[in-house]
Structure formats: C-alpha cells, structure tokens
Amino acid sequence: MRRLRPALTMLACLAPVASQAAVDVPICYNYGCVTETVVRFPEDDLRSLQRQLRAANSAAEERAIVAEVIGWMYREAGKQSPIHADRGGNFADEGVDGRMDCIDHANSTTRLLGVLEARGALRFHKLMPQARRTTVVLFHAKI
Predict the structure, then answer these.
(1) Measuring CA to CA, how many Å separate 14 from each of 49, 83, 84, 112?
(2) pLDDT digits over 98-122, tens only?
(3) Phi, psi (degrees; rounded to nearest 5) at 23
(4) Which DSSP category does 97 fall into?
C-alpha cells in the first residue's frame, strides 16, 4: 500500500490537467432538441476565446465579442456534427439531418454560454435561465 500511495497521489494531481484537456458540450438539432450530439472544444481553443472576451471594456463590447465567439463555436460544432446542414428559417432545410429551430438554438446557445461563464470569460453578463414568452407553445407544425 505504501508503494501505491505516491502513484495514487501523482494520478490525483494529473486528474485536473486531464479534465482541462477539452470541454464536451451537447448540441441539439432536428427541431425541438430531438437529437443531441456531443461536440468537443479543446482547451487551447477555449483559452483563445477567453482572451478575445477579455478585450471587452464594456457590456456592449462583450456582447459583440460574444456574438463572434458563439458563431465560431457553432462553426466548430458543425465540423463535428450534422448542424452544418442547418439553413436560415425552417423551410430551407426541411427534412435535413442537422436542421435547427429556435428551441435547438436556445438550448445549444445556452450551453455554449454556460461553458464561457463557467470559465469566467463573461465579465459584464450573467447567464440566466431560459424564459418562455408565452404559456402556449406552438411548435413548427405543418397545417
């Protein structure tokens, strides 16, 4: 047991390093968050995004940078998942694997922002729970 103790201590010290290697984020798609795929953001990329956000000197500047950062994260997610097939609106990509509606975007964007917030990258904003605008939810039903 005494011989194992140094090895176990070494493994315990390496565990935080391994957990910093990448962040996995589930991304929703196919309307209504019906399908999810986990995408991975390497630590180096996340540090780069944090540096970009640190350049903000005001809430308005941070929002502009967040828009660019989230766009970049979606492009990267599109390389790892079928969401690259998503098109604007809900009719241009009808039936395509990877299509996204407002529910998919709301959930996925909230998760991406959560990664940034958890890393302390948001200085002027705080992520809040999603809110519904109405009690009646009409999903993208065909009439």
Answers:
(1) 24, 34, 35, 26
(2) 999 989 999 999 999 999 999 999 9
(3) -120, 130
(4) T
Beta pairing partners, 25: 39
35: β partners: 29
* Chain centre distance of CA 124: 19
| Burial label, 77 (beta-carbon count in 10 A; 0-12, 13-18, 19+) | buried
Q: How far is the C-alpha of 38 from the C-alpha of 24, rounded, in Å?
A: 6
The 10s digit of each residue's pLDDT in 67-88 is 999 999 999 999 999 999 998 8
User: What's the pTM?
Assistant: 0.79
The CB density around residue 5, as the number of other CB atoms within 10 Å, is 9
For Cα atoms 78, 82, 86, give the angle at the middle one, nearest 5 degrees. 80
What are the φ and ψ backbone dihedral angles of 41, each rounded to 5 degrees? -115, 115
Q: What residues contact 115, with CB distance under 8 A and at least 6 apart?
A: 23, 25, 41, 46
